[in-house]
Design goal:
Elements (H helix, E strand, L loop, with lengths): L4 H11 L3 E5 L2 E5 L2 H7 L4 E5 L10 E2 L5 H10 L5 E7 L7 H8 L1 E2 L3 E24 L3 E11 L10 H4 L3 E4 L11 H19 L1 H36 L3 H29 L2 E25 L2 E10 L4 E2 L2 E2 L6 E2 L1 E4 L6 E2 L1 H4 L31
Parallel strand pairs: 3-4, 5-10, 6-15
Antiparallel strand pairs: 1-2, 2-3, 5-9, 7-8, 7-10, 10-11, 11-12, 13-14, 15-16
Helix pairs in contact: 7-8
């Protein structure tokens, strides 16, 4: 459940060194002098959160109030980065057999060699988005990425609040990808998340757009119909008919211009910016999985996550999609999805990890490639 504003303000004040007491729907706070100066409040203050109960001896706080803006000023530069380690997590021991049931090599052979406990690092990125059309909508989206595999593990966020943790400087036991690759994976992940967040907003905009276009079309078509009736009623010919037909064309052009204006009015522009970053260290079970294609052999790690109690997906090396069933390419045994293993043009087997721009067999350029 989302945290109430009163609880958020109390937490921020306490982290800033204030002594806070919650009394029903208001807070009493004893604030250090420098913090009180930033917040423009007395050192001993009351904060009310319900307009019906607000009194003159304190300040009313809402999401739109100046106090919240001042609170953001207080928070700037803090909480941008943190790291923690999770403890006392259950690690499933029978992960070898479970891995062979969960994952399948569609054009080769795969088998689990061994499984062992590893400590890995995960990166939680929090982003703020602002969508602007004739209205404005703001929100926050988060994603969690495995720093070793680049797999999305956002489902574990639900369990983080229940886990036992401490602040830490631990390191992972497997090599991590570069921050550039990590950030790119996070951006791909939140793009779909923002799309889901804005789906209803987009539908609302589209309904109003179609409504306004319908009204415009009905109005201008009625003008055109009236002009045509005039031509027929008066049996106009020659220059008079040409003048009226010119009016029809002008009206049609005006309708087209008005529709373009409406589309621009309801066009949605989205701005996304990172807010903060949390690095999470935790134990997992890592299964060493052997993949064979003809005489070629490759070993890849499969990660069983103790928070989600399931395996994390493999990442398609062509488009970054999550995979449980996958193909391996003939050249380097890249793990790829069905779309990245077959050319849509010629239908032959390819590998978009090896050939990211165009099919090596028919030369067709790929459309909408999102490979790493």
């Amino acid at each position: 459940m989302a945290k109430l504003l009163i609880d958020t303000v109390a937490e921020v004040l306490e982290l800033s060194g204030a002594a806070v007491e919650k009394n029903g729907e208001y807070l009493e706070a004893l604030v250090p002098g420098d913090i009180a100066k930033t917040l423009h409040t007395p050192e001993q203050t009351k904060l009310y959160f319900n307009p019906e109960h607000a009194k003159q001896d304190g300040e009313l706080v809402t999401f739109q109030s100046d106090f919240v803006d001042r609170l953001f000023v207080l928070m700037q530069g803090t909480g941008n980065y943190a790291r923690l380690a999770l403890h006392n997590l259950y690690l499933k021991q029978s992960t070898r057999s479970a891995a062979e049931q969960r994952f399948a090599v569609l054009n080769g052979l795969g088998r689990a060699l061994d499984a062992m406990e590893r400590r890995l690092s995960y990166a939680q990125f929090n982003f703020k988005y602002t969508a602007v059309s004739d209205e404005k909508k703001e929100g926050l989206v988060s994603t969690i990425i495995n720093e070793q595999t680049l797999a999305e593990a956002s489902d574990m966020a639900v369990q983080l609040g229940w886990a036992e943790f401490t602040e830490t400087s631990h390191h992972a036991e497997l090599p991590a990808h570069s921050f550039h690759d990590l950030y790119a994976a996070a951006c791909r992940s939140v793009e779909s998340g923002i799309g889901r967040e804005l789906s209803e907003f987009h539908k609302s905009l589209n309904r109003r757009l179609q409504r306004d276009i319908g009204r415009l079309t009905e109005y201008y078509e009625s003008l055109i119909t009236e002009i045509r009736r005039k031509i027929a009623r008066r049996s106009l010919e020659g220059k008079e008919r040409e003048d009226e037909e010119a009016r029809i064309r002008a009206t049609e052009l005006e309708l087209e211009r008005k529709i373009v204006d409406q589309r621009e009015k309801y066009a949605m522009k989205i701005n996304v910016e990172p807010v903060n970053f949390l690095r999470i260290f935790m134990p997992v079970m890592a299964v060493n999985f052997e993949v064979r294609f003809r005489k070629a052999v490759r070993e890849i790690p499969l990660i069983w996550n103790p928070l989600t109690k399931d395996f994390e997906t493999l990442v398609c090396q062509g488009c970054a999609a999550g995979l449980f069933h996958f193909y391996v390419c003939e050249e380097k045994l890249h793990t790829v999805c069905a779309d990245c293993f077959k050319c849509a043009g010629c239908g032959r087997n390819i590998c978009r990890a090896c050939h990211p721009k165009k099919c090596p067999k028919c030369g067709m350029a790929y459309q909408g490639s999102s490979n790493q």
